[in-house]
Design brief:
Blueprint (H helix, E strand, L loop, with lengths): L3 E10 L2 E10 L2 E7 L2 E8 L4 H12 L8 E9 L2 E8 L1 H6 L1 H5 L1 H4 L9 H10 L9 E2 H11 L4 H6 L3 E6 L5 E7 L2 H14 L8 E4 L5 H9 L4 E4 L5 H9 L3 E6 L2 E6 L4 E2 L1
Parallel strand pairs: 3-6, 7-14, 10-11, 11-12
Antiparallel strand pairs: 1-2, 3-4, 5-6, 8-9, 8-10, 12-13
Helix pairs in contact: 1-8, 1-9, 8-9, 9-10
Length: about 260
């Protein structure tokens, strides 16, 4: 399985034409089934399927920790990639209402749909309790590290990345994907499956920060989320409501929208 594909291209430059090749990022569907029933279809880059699904399940409120999962299996059926999650019976009973409304609550690809969904999502979130303080220069150094781990983006120029750090700003995980939502799900999933979710403190994203990304970081109980593009107003509202530090960093400059108490000079 590959996450990039080389294609012939024609380049027009300075009045001349030349043929070359370029690596394109692969985008394929992943069907996610929960206890045998279809739950969601997401478009993503192939690879890290188990971590992706684990992070997705945490973000969606399907699980609270890795112990809620009995098994995750992945297979290819007639060219359609299918991942199946089997929950522990007690967890399935606890979230039966979410599973029954799967077509409504799932928002990894389609965004927020209506006030009722936004209300539901807020109720699933726990305010960040971390009191860790991070030096601004050290945080900006973490942002600079992200590009060192974007091999797929360097190859295709069309991949998003998410990188997670602990309170000591030691890297925990990093993932790339064609979708920014998928990238953070994968990064969170790796930490979750490694049993280190409670150590995740800071998330760095190679994208703007949307409502959905704040929601995913909050589900992982991270206290800080930084993007290289500015957040939406709804993202700031949600971050503020869950006591999260939300910021934008570029060219050695950090702009913080809420949660300034966690930053020190």
């Amino acid at each position: 399985m590959t996450n990039s594909r080389q294609e012939p291209i024609t380049i027009y430059e300075n009045g001349r034409e030349r043929v070359a090749s370029h690596d394109l990022i692969v985008e394929e569907p992943l069907s996610i089934r929960i206890d045998g029933e279809p739950y969601s279809l997401v478009m993503r880059s192939p690879g890290e399927e188990k971590a992706h699904v684990a992070g997705f399940c945490l973000s969606e409120g399907i699980i609270e920790d890795a112990g809620d999962i009995q098994t995750i299996s992945f297979c290819e059926e007639a060219g359609i990639n299918v991942a199946t999650v089997t929950l522990r019976p007690e967890r399935h009973r606890k979230i039966a209402s979410i599973l029954n409304r799967r077509g409504f609550i799932s928002q990894t690809s389609c965004g927020i749909c209506g006030k009722e969904m936004a209300k539901d999502i807020r109720q699933m979130l726990t305010p960040a309790e971390t009191t860790a303080q991070v030096r601004v220069d050290a945080l900006l150094a973490c942002v600079q590290k992200l590009s060192d781990h974007q091999a797929l983006h360097q190859k295709t120029r069309s991949a998003h990345a998410a990188m997670l750090f602990d309170e000591n700003l030691s890297p925990l995980s990093v993932s790339e994907d064609v979708g920014r939502h998928n990238a953070i799900d994968k990064a969170i999933g790796h930490v979750l499956l490694d049993g280190k979710l409670d150590t995740a403190c800071l998330g760095i994203m190679s994208s703007r920060l949307s409502y959905e990304l704040v929601q995913k970081a909050a589900r992982a109980r991270m206290g800080l989320l930084i993007g290289i593009s500015r957040p939406t107003s709804l993202a700031v509202d949600l971050a503020r409501s869950v006591n999260m530090t939300l910021g934008f960093a570029r060219n050695h400059r950090l702009m913080v929208f809420c949660g300034q108490q966690r930053l020190i000079l």
